[in-house]
Amino acid sequence: MKTIVIYNSQTGFTKRYAKWIAEATGADCLELSAAKRKSMEPYDAIVFGGWACAGGISKLHWFKSNIDKWEDKKLIAFCVGGSPIENPEIEPALKQNFNDSELKKVNVFYCPGGFNYEKMSAPSKLMMKLFIKTLKAKKDKTEAEQVMINMISTSYDISDKKYIDPILECLHA
Ligand SMILES: Cc1cc2nc3c(=O)[nH]c(=O)nc-3n(C[C@H](O)[C@H](O)[C@H](O)COP(=O)(O)O)c2cc1C
């Protein structure tokens, strides 16, 4: 199956997962801006990866706007975020990005990444600062919220190659 992995990454985690998937499958791997200039005609499978941003998936609009054109292809979207895979909010948040008809055509996955404040853009850093400040100011914080504050206040890396296994299974099915 001729496959292409297309990714949008700000600090490198989504790129890392895209490369892992491409290495494991022999797929072509391109950053989104390069992929936009390329014909998807020769591919049987298209894998798109974007990073989680306030419940959304970066650049997902581009991928979704092409779904109807790619009717004959296997479609996979993966999202890379700072939340650990055990977070029960991930599944519903991921699905919210797609309507029922899109979910019938696209296989959706989540891979934990982390935070890298050294590589983050200034606007993103500011958004995170405000988010953490709001969370800290909240009265009666839940234990989960306190854990989250501690976790996202500094850089961390919870990415692991094992998280691509469900994506590889889907590609081979
Ligand atoms: C402004 C902003 C919003 C974010 N929102 C979420 C979120 O809703 N859920 C989540 O799990 N991670 C969230 N993250 C964390 C990123 O998705 C995470 O750092 C990811 O690994 C970045 O991928 P990249 O290195 O490919 O850019 C957010 C990060 C930023 C900067």
Helix-strand category: alpha/beta
Major sheet: size, sense and barrel closure? 6 strands, mixed
What would the CATH topology of the largest domain be? Answer: Rossmann fold
Q: What is the CATH C-level name of the largest domain?
A: Alpha Beta
Shape: elongated
Helix content: 25-40%
Q: What is the succession of H and E elements? A: EHEHEEHEHHEEHHEH
Strand content: 15-25%
Can you give a write-up of this model?
With 173 residues, the chain is an alpha/beta fold. The protein folds into two domains: 3-116 and 157-172, Rossmann fold (3-Layer(aba) Sandwich), CATH 3.40.50; 117-154. It is 40% helix and 23% strand. It has helices at 13-25, 32-35, 60-65, 90-95, 100-105, 122-137, 143-152, 165-172, and strands at residues 3-7, 28-31, 45-53, 56-57, 74-81, 106-112, 114-115, 156-157. Strands 1, 2, 3, 4, 5 and 6 form a six-stranded mixed beta sheet that branches. A two-stranded antiparallel ribbon has the order 7-8. The longest helix is centred in the C-terminal third of the chain and has 16 residues, at 122-137. The model has no long low-confidence stretch (mean pLDDT 96). The structure holds flavin mononucleotide.
